[in-house]
Known about the structure:
The chain is mostly beta strands. The protein is built from 2 helices and 8 strands; from the N terminus they run H-E-E-E-H-E-E-E-E-E. The protein has one domain (20-149). A hairpin with a 7-residue loop joins strand 7 (126-135) and strand 8 (143-149).
Amino acid sequence: MTALPAGLLVALLLASSPLASAEPIGSVDTAFVLIGPDHKIVVDAYDDPKVAGVTCYVSRAKTGGLKGAIGVAEDKAEASIACRQVGPISFGSKPLAQHEEMFNERISLVFKHLRVVRMVDPKRNTLVYLSYSDRVIDGSPKNSVTAVPVDRATPIPMR
């Protein structure tokens, strides 16, 4: 039996990841750049992969210019999040963890990520979503939080 090349193995692992994937909704330009794309604010939608009927909308700055065009720009560590019930809420066959990363995306070449974490507030039967960015050396305290209440007739299954 032959071993898979490391790059293929990583790609397969990432493809099977339960993390949500972005669906672009739109963007607005914030600053004109002579060479390359303009600086902008982008809005993406993320369906919660473990909770049907909940979508999170994340807005964040996207650096343009030549560095942005070739993917080496470092985006600002600021994002806003709004999660909403967009259909009947239901849970998969596995219970939810109290605290779980739902999504992460690289926002610099190597060291910075935008993260969205789902937390469960069992007392209020509510899903709480937090967006923030981290950096290997020094993360940012800038964050945004939103909550989606779940009808008491549908208890949130937890581990």
